[in-house]
Amino acid sequence: MGHGHGHGVSGAGQHVNKLWVAFGIGAVFMVVEFAVGFATSSLALISDAAHMLTDVLGVGMALAAIMVARRATAGRNRTFGLYRAEVLAALANAILLFGVAGYVVYEAIGRFANPPVVPGLPVLVAAALGLVANIVAFLVLKDGAEESINVRGAYLEVLADLIGSVGVLISGVLTLAFGWRYADPVVGVLIGLWVLPRTWKLAKNALHILFQHAPERIDVHEVEAALTGLVGVVEVHDVHVWTLTSGMEVATAHLTTHEKAVHAAVLDAAQNVLKTKYGIEHATLQIENSAQRCRELSW
């Protein structure tokens, strides 16, 4: 039996300070937007605050992934450490956002019949502050996004939220300039609908990992064929490929060889194919000849 060892979590430790800055900025202005949104009954501002919540959680998950990776050494009962904590947090984030988006859309539908008067100036000021916060966080994370997959995820969250902040600014301007009472619920619904597809994708990716499906970029039948085509290999069975957490993919397989095949050479060739062709650096491979072939399980 042979092992290939993984690269672990992307080396984002050097970006921890930048992530903490972005997290602090986002958390403060998220609270401001929620407070002003509920005080003025502005659905647009509440929607944007909910969107900013995704930023805060996204940055928080990037931080958690780094912190947990530092401490998540494998133990007797934690053979894969605590890497799935990031995935569970992402799923919780998605469930929360579905609830918030649903609330905003439900409230907006009720308001279209008789839209309340929303004071434009407080909404405009709060949205402007939120936009400034997003721009600062965007600039803080920009460099790190090129080097770390975790930081890149947080960076994309902030980038997307800039659109929400601009939408709320437009709502505030329309309310102040023209007194158009439909501006707020319309922008609120648009931001809610902007959040939903991203939320669905987040939930789908989290469940994909938790159910241990193969990564979408990898065709398991193609992997099996590539391993079967190696010199000395008769057939391949019990092939499993799954994602432990973002950027950490794992594989196992049993390779049945010819009687005269050199097992060490077959193992090296198999590990090389998985690493170079499919980017899988952690693989557990069992090499067996025809006489030793194990019983293949139905599951």
From TrEMBL:
Coiled coil: none
Domain Cation efflux protein transmembrane: 19-210
Location of the protein in the cell: Membrane
Keywords: Ion transport, Membrane, Transmembrane, Transmembrane helix, Transport
Topology within the bilayer: Multi-pass membrane protein
InterPro entries: Cation_efflux, Cation_efflux_CTD, Cation_efflux_CTD_sf, Cation_efflux_TM, Cation_efflux_TMD_sf, CDF/SLC30A
Gene3D superfamilies (UniProt xref): Cation efflux protein transmembrane domain (1.20.1510.10)
Transmembrane segments: 20-46, 52-69, 81-106, 118-141, 153-174, 180-196
Highest taxon of the lineage: Bacteria
Domain (Cation efflux protein cytoplasmic) ranges: 215-289
Entry GO terms, CC: plasma membrane
Family affiliation: Belongs to the cation diffusion facilitator (CDF) transporter (TC 2.A.4) family. SLC30A subfamily.
Protein name as catalogued: Cation transporter
